[in-house]
Amino acid sequence: MKRSIPLAIVMVGGILFIIQYFIPHQHSQTLFDYYTEWAPIVGAFALVLGVGSLSRLHSHKIKRKAKNWQYSYAVLIPLFAVPFFALLMPESLGGGLMESMGGTRTTQGVFDFAYLNVQIPIQSTMFSLLAFYIASAAFRAFRAKSALATVLLLAAIIVMLGQVPIGELIGKWFPKIGLWILRYPNLGAKRAIGLGVGFGILATQLKIIFGVERNWLGGAGE
Amino acid sequence: MTETIGLWVAALFTIGIYSFLYKENPLYRLAEHLVIGISLGYFIVISYMRVLEPRLIEPISNGEQGAWLLLIPAILGILYITRFFPKVAWLSRYPMAFLMGAGMGVGFPLSMKAQVLRQLEASLIPLYKTGMSWEIVLGNVVMVLGTLAALIYFFFSKPHKGLFFGTGSKIGIWVIMVGFGATFGFTVMGRISLLIGRIQFLLGDWLHIIK
Question: B162: domain range?
């Protein structure tokens, strides 16, 4: 009941939907339509787990006055305030989605404010921060200690310079070489890695369907 | 007014994140905690407005034909909550089993098609056709043989010895290194352009020093 039935559901569901793909019949399509209709609904409820776990973690931190507990309020307040304003006060307090984000509002509300002025700047700055770290990583990785490291260094330099104006100053042919590297040898390497990943995905899917891989069951109720 | 405040808030947090380059500090910590809270809050809103409201609540409340069937995924979804109650936590495996089983079943032929067959198909191209320039012909040869060589490098069931496996894997590692170099360079440029974007925001939109 606790493990066997979920494993059986996975096996039956998995095999059923693999077979469904190869049967061009109305009933088969109806079955697939049910899946596409139901899966997002079930998936949306999974968010409850994330919200619950995060809330529990941070409320415990506040209760125990753990290290840096004050910052837990910075997680909990927007976690509940953003949906509160967006869903429960869609117009009066400026919640709701803007037109550009699929909603009906034309002016910025609390939801949009938090998203556009806090979320987006912080996230893009965090990614841009990596420019500094990637530069220091490049310094270590790009030392031409061997022939292979030299190839890596040359490929990276040509691709980088090919994308900026200085590349064209070196020669009109220079950006073309960068593009050629990206289009051909890079594609070859990526395709081989992609094929390996693809076979890995297929093997994992089969392992889950046939119950060889059971980690997703977790330890609940054991 | 809202826009000006928004601009200042965005600038404050941008500087806050960059202050991490010096050392970790309260403003950085505040920003990283806020982004977690807002992200999850954002996903709650999107999940409700894009999924639960149009696909579950509206059809049931409008009494659409066959809408009662939607109670099945709703009940399955609610079973996730049992995860927080140790005695009945095992019930949360049922919605997971539904998503895993059906998801893997639906995904298997699609993964086979997209990740394997389409990739193989794209690699089996004519190396030369009339009218092709020499750099394209060379590129095709490098791409096709490079893919094969890199695949040989990742094939560990046979020792990398002899003409086919030995030489193939050696060529493979060269192709992979070129690929890694190109990817690294491309990623660096992507990050740099993000950095330029943030600096343009600070010096242009916020301080109006540059236009």
Answer: 125-211
pLDDT at A94 over 70: no
The structural domain count of chain A equals 2
Domain count, chain B: 1
Show which of A13, A46, A66 is a domain's final residue. Answer: A66
Per-residue pLDDT, A103: 62
Which residue type, as a one-letter code, is found at position B78? I
Q: Is the pLDDT of residue A41 over 70?
A: yes
Render pLDDT for B96-135 as a digit per residue (tens, 0 to 9): 999 999 999 999 999 999 999 999 999 999 999 999 999 9
> In this structure, is residue A97 part of a structural domain?
no
Structural domain range at position A28? 1-66
Percent of chain A, pLDDT > 70? 89
Kindly state whether residue A185 falls inside one of the protein's structural domains: yes
Q: How far apart are CA A40 and CA A121, in angstroms?
A: 29
Contacts of B45 in chain A (CB under 8 A): 82-83, 86-87, 97, 111
ipTM, 2 decimals? 0.85
CA angle (B144 as vertex; A181, B186 as ends), nearest 5 = 25
- Least CB–CB distance from B38: residue in A10, A115, A202: A115
Helical ranges in A71-184 per DSSP H: 72-83, 110-114, 120-141, 147-162, 165-170, 173-183
Residues 24 to 63 of A: which have CB under 8 A from any B CB? 32, 34-35, 37-52, 54
Inter-chain touch A122–B35, beta carbons under 8 Å: yes
Answer yes or no: is A198 within a domain.
yes
* pLDDT of res. A111: 77
Give me the pLDDT at residue A92, please.
42
Q: Which residue has the tokens 């977790």?
A: A218
Predicted confidence at residue A88, as pLDDT, reads 79
Cβ-Cβ contacts under 8 Å, A93 against chain B: none
Dihedral angle computed from the Cα positions of residues A134, A137, A143 and A146, in that order, rounded to the nearest 10 degrees: -100
Distance CA A97, CA A108 (A): 8
Of B30, B25, B199, B34, whose CA–CA distance to A132 is shortest? B199
**Residue B207, in any domain of the structure:** yes
> What pLDDT does A93 receive?
42
Model-wide pTM > 0.90: no
SS3 A98: strand
Q: Please provide the DSSP assignment of B34-53 as one string.
A: HHHHHHHHHHHHHIIIIIII
A153 to B181: CB separation less than 8 angstroms, yes or no: yes
Last residue of one domain, picked from the residues A17, A40, A66: A66
